[in-house]
Design brief:
The protein is an alpha/beta fold. Helix content is 44%, strand content 16%.
């Protein structure tokens, strides 16, 4: 049997037969009119999990993040403090500038992984300095970042700092599902002091499309208006929302196994001499690529491609391997055996 294991990302998963059945059986209506019961239930469920008043179903996490920025910012010129390598800064096509007339202020963490309150404090712009600077009007966080969990203590301290200056905090929690599974901390606890949160349904959750933005009722009402402006109004979107509901009940609980597989993969590759560049706390393994190991990594990618394993994404100077619910133990065994055989020749 030919295999097709894909570790480039956890966005590559395909709907399972049971997920497709849930989608086909979903009751639907016109969501723009507020008449799609499955969309309504997904939004209610997401808001409840995060302890928030309301939620809105979006086409993608990029849309969710950009809706959050647009709904938070009201009076340009304004700025957003964020992680220098965050998705919202690096991989959303300059959306904040284009859609919200906002300047991003990228911050490199002092510990090189996650932001702290001290990092954020140094970069807040609290007035316009005689009209020379755009004041900070939003702080954007990300959890997880490259598979590393952002400590709850840091989230809380950053929120306290921002709120003391009247600045809201948005959390790109595209993989917050993973953080919750890894730590046992509930989504509600992680998001308690957040003013808005984006949850992705296609990263690790196995859905073909979608994300949910949560926040206060007034905030989500504003985001709903901008979603329409962005061309994101759904009609019979319950077919897609049903995948999200299925994922929450059936895919989310499998993440513990994916995390264990990622840890086993990292330990095995480290024992063979490969360098893991970030702590493996959830479902991602980043292998550092230097002059010597870069050749070994590329050779391993090529060899495994012939064996039905795809993992050819170079990410910020690393080879990124992302484990998800459609990766099994046989795949992990094959990668380790191939790496061992390659280094022995």
């Amino acid at each position: 049997m030919a295999h097709n294991w894909d570790l480039r990302s956890d966005t590559v998963t395909k709907p399972t037969a049971d997920m497709l059945a849930a989608m086909l059986g979903a009751p639907v209506g016109d969501s723009v009119f507020g008449e799609d019961p499955t969309v309504t239930e997904l939004e209610r469920r997401a808001a409840e999990l995060c302890g928030k008043e309301a939620a809105i179903f979006c086409a993608s996490s990029t849309m969710g993040n950009q809706l959050a920025i647009r709904a938070h910012l009201h009076n340009p010129p304004e700025s957003i403090v964020c992680h220098a390598k965050s998705h919202i800064f690096q991989y959303e096509s300059g959306g904040a500038a284009l859609l919200s007339q906002a300047m991003m202020v990228p911050v490199t963490p002092s510990d090189s992984i996650n932001l702290t309150a001290a990092d954020v404090k140094q970069h807040l712009i609290l007035d316009n300095f005689l009209y020379h600077k755009p004041p900070t009007r939003l702080v954007a966080l990300e959890n997880t970042f490259s598979g590393v969990v952002m400590p709850l203590k840091d989230i809380e301290e950053i929120a306290e700092l921002a709120h003391s200056h009247g600045i809201p905090v948005h959390l790109d929690g595209s993989r917050l599902w993973n953080a919750s599974v890894a730590t046992g901390i509930s989504l509600a606890e992680y998001t308690r002091q957040m003013d808005s949160v984006n949850l992705c349904l296609s990263k690790g959750m196995g859905c073909p499309v979608g994300a949910v933005l949560v926040g206060s009722a007034a905030f989500i009402d504003k985001a709903r208006h901008f979603r329409k402006v962005f061309g994101g109004g759904w009609r019979q979107a319950g077919i897609l929302a049903a995948a999200g509901l299925y994922a929450i009940d059936h895919i989310w609980p499998t993440m513990k196994r994916s995390h264990e597989q990622a840890r086993r993969l990292a330990d095995g590759l480290t024992a063979l001499g490969f360098a893991v560049s970030l702590p493996v706390e959830t479902n991602m393994v980043l292998l550092g690529i230097d002059a010597e190991m870069g050749v070994a990594c590329q050779q391993l990618v090529d060899v495994l491609k012939e064996k039905g394993v795809t993992m050819g994404v170079l990410y910020e100077g690393s080879l990124r391997l992302v484990v998800h619910h459609q990766i099994d133990d046989e795949c992990i065994d094959l990668i380790l055996a191939s790496a061992r055989q390659q280094l022995a020749t």
